[in-house]
Amino acid sequence: MQPAVVAAKDTVPDLVEIALSAQAVSAWYGSKLAIRDINLDFIRNSITALMGPSGCGKTTFLRCLNRIHESALDARTAGKVLLAGTNIYDADVNPVVTRRRIGMVFQRPNPFPTMSILENVTSGPRYTGMTNEPRELADLAEEALRRAALFDEVKDKLRDPALSLSGGQQQRLCIARALAVKPEVLLMDEPTSALDPLSTLKIEELMEHLAADFTVVIVTHNLQQAARVSHFTAFMLGDADRVGSVVEFAPTGEIFTHPKDSRTEDYITGRFG
Amino acid sequence: MSLELDSPRTVEVSQRGLTARQAIADRVFRIGLVAATLTFVILIAGLFAELVHGSWESLVAFGPKFLWSSEWNPVTNHFGALPFIYGTVVSSAIAILVAGVVGIAAAVFLAEFAPPAVARPISFFIELLAAVPSVVFGLWGLFVLAPFLGSTVDPFIQRYLGFLPMFSGGIYGIGLLTAGLLLALMIVPTVAAIARDLIQAVPNELREASISLGATRWETVVHVVLPSARAGIVGACVLALGRALGETIAATMVIGNRPAISASLFAPSYTLSSVIANEFTEATSSLYLSALLELGLILFVISFIVNGCARILMWSMLRSQGRRP
Predict the structure, then answer these.
(1) How many folded domains does chain B comprise?
(2) Of A65, A112, A165, which to mutate for an interface test with B (greatest number of B Cβ within 10 Å)?
(3) Which pLDDT does position B322 carry in this prediction?
(4) By the CB < 8 Å criterion, does B206 face chain A?
(5) Are residues B156 and B30 located together in one domain of the fold?
(6) Does A103 contact B213 at a Cβ distance shorter than 8 Å?
(7) Which end of chain A is more exposed for a tag (fewer CB within 10 A), N or C?
(8) Does residue B110 sit at the A interface (CB-CB below 8 Å)?
(9) What chain B residue is nearest to A111 in terms of C-alpha separation?
(10) What are the boundaries of each domain within chain A?
């Protein structure tokens, strides 16, 4: 397969728009500092990979971007995250509304077990009050399932329980569920780490199309995955106190061919991590 | 798997690997487990057989009419179970309705919203409440709850809802409603404690999936968390209902012990277990004793039916999720 990054370098336009911007973001669990002072810009309609060894805080940082980090007990965040210019941590911004604009896909497939395939996809639109009209919901569901490359596999059994699907299908169902709310940004937290290689390939393929409509941020500890799917890569690393920060951020092609930081080079050449 | 274990080759291998002592210990252990499990089967079967045997005289004398006859007259030796069935079913229904709503609400608060510093002590007290002996509840019901309901709550309800038959008639303090509410208090810790554990056991990934879609915490609880735990919560309610159906002493102390059927929830009533406990020692004729035992048989059958229905309900819930129960 042609590495997406080669194509990506050519397609990133000169004039870019920043969809999401993290400014001096730090996060704590209780009194333990997990990530320190992270500054990153996410370009609209691009895929950015957050790459690094386990425990470097990449998932924590991702969870700060839609304010789901703070739902954990004693979790706390500092800094700004600008979504289309507005800081989502401002006092007058409702995190519930923010999360409708910034969707998320998790490490393990987590479809709602009591709902059918269709109900899973339409749960977002129904709860967020987008629509309750069956016809519109069906259209939204079909569109989302098509984008998640799942529609053809499930179109005849939309009323079946979501758990009757295979693991890979369940994860694509979760992607469809997140897309049905029509978010601007899609956060993906190691979306293929619990899947077999074939399911992983399907999800990587559909990601190429996602960037046409969404801004995607994907956490991965898999170098090849970062190289294959992303336009930009941020390499993160934890220090001696296991506080994570960004070591290097650049277009994916550059990171993998001419890393500026020796630690990045060590990681991608397999000297540690 | 089992096929493999049964095949001669596997058996041979496993036997070769074991010393004689291990093989004996293995066998003794297995026999012990089977025996312990069989105890339950024998107990249930024996109990049922003994109840049928003991109530045979009454079964023959009254036939199925026993179920819908309202007469209970030891002097003329005419017996019917309907008032007791009514009292048992209605008081337990009130109990499980109130305890279900309050218990699940408390469980949601403790599991989803309360900070641990609040949830831990409250959970401890709920579990403590479940351990209070029935007779203490009964005493409290008789001396505190019944007078309070009779003087304050019942008249208040009657003033506004008295046009409904269920809230009409004389108010005595003791009666069906009081018994139902006291039973609710006794079983609500069971519902709350089990439901809290079940809600906590719902994977956090599901909550996060819902929250990340832009659902509020309330929507997450109603649409995702509670449905995921519902089969277990139904089970908790049935466990609690079983206790309410069979609860004897506390119900006896506040229900009024009068074998009559009244539309009013304020009226005195009687339960199956109460009448057995109250009249067992004074059952002079053998038919009287037999009729009391038949009441026991009916209670047994009601519990059996309730548990059976709950099983079917839970099974269908799990099946609709595509899981194997």
Answers:
(1) 2
(2) A112
(3) 60
(4) yes
(5) no
(6) yes
(7) N
(8) no
(9) B206
(10) 4-110+183-268
Note the pLDDT tens digit of each residue in A154-213: 999 999 999 999 999 999 999 999 999 999 999 999 999 888 999 999 999 999 889 989
- Give the strands of the sheet with A232-238, arranged side by side: A86-87, A75-83, A18-29, A32-43, A244-251, A232-238, A47-51, A215-220, A185-189, A102-105
Q: CB distance A127–B214 less than 8 Å?
A: yes
CA atoms within 13 A on the CB side of A48: 26
Q: With respect to residue B145, please indicate whether it lies within any of the assigned structural domains.
A: yes
Cβ-defined contact of A174 to B206 (cutoff 8 Å): no
Domain ranges, residue B17:
2-54
| Predicted complex ipTM exceeds 0.85 | yes
For the record, the structure tokens of B100 come out as: 């279900």
* % of chain A with per-residue pLDDT over 70: 93
CA proximity to A6, closest of A234, A269, A229 = A229
- Same domain assignment for residues B167 and B220: yes
C-beta atoms of A164 and B322 within 8 A: yes
Same domain (yes/no): B168, B113:
yes
Note the maximum CA span of chain B.
Answer: 82
Q: Would you call A100 and B116 a contact, using CB atoms and an 8 Å cutoff? A: no
The answer to whether B322 contacts A162, with C-beta atoms less than 8 Å apart, is yes
Any domain includes B155: yes
Q: How many CB pairs under 8 A join A and B?
A: 85
Which token pair is B5? 């274990």
Q: For B213, which of A115, A161, A181 is closest by C-beta distance?
A: A181
Residue A40 has phi, psi (to 5 degrees) of: -150, 140
Using the 8-state DSSP alphabet, how is residue B265 labeled? T
Chain A hits for B215, Cβ within 8 Å: 96, 123-124, 127-128
Using the Cβ of B325 and the Cβ atoms of chain A, whether some distance falls under 8 Å is answered with: no
Residue of B nearest to A102 (CA): B212
| Sign of the torsion angle spanned by Cα atoms A77, A79, A84, A86 | positive
With an 8 Å Cβ cutoff, are A110 and B209 in contact? yes
Is there a single domain that holds both residue B115 and residue B176? yes
List, for residues B220-243, the tens digit of each pLDDT value. 999 999 999 998 999 899 989 999
Q: Which residues of B touch A128 (CB under 8 A)?
A: 213-215
Planar angle of CA B49, B86, B276, nearest 5 degrees: 45
A4-110+183-268 falls under which CATH superfamily? P-loop containing nucleotide triphosphate hydrolases (3.40.50.300)
| B205 shares contact with chain A (CB less than 8 Å) | yes
- In a domain, residue B325? The reply is no
